[in-house]
Amino acid sequence: QVVLVESGGGLVQAGGSLRLSCAASGSIFSSNAMAWYRQTLGEQRELVASITNTAYTLYGNSVKDRFTISRGNAENTVYLQMTSLKPEDTAVYYCNVRELGGGQRRYWGKGTLVTVSS
Description:
Shape: globular
Strand content: over 45%
Number of helices: 0
């Protein structure tokens, strides 16, 4: 069973920074992509950033140049460094892992709330 656990959400003022962390445990195909998505009430979940096990990264247009995704030294950990936060970044942030081979399964964390006050 694969379990993803996120941490690091909270309340921050506009212009501030936060760092989200996610650790995935369980059997995951070695070729994979880990990502952060976010969702606000009534909206679709959107991709914030993703990174493969070979360090290829992809960012949503609204967070380019402000957020940085990275993978940790521990296997299947991922971080999201968020800077210059804006009120519109307020959302529940979800960690995701997608296998790029094998069973091509996808797994989700339960989410962590980020609130940016103006």
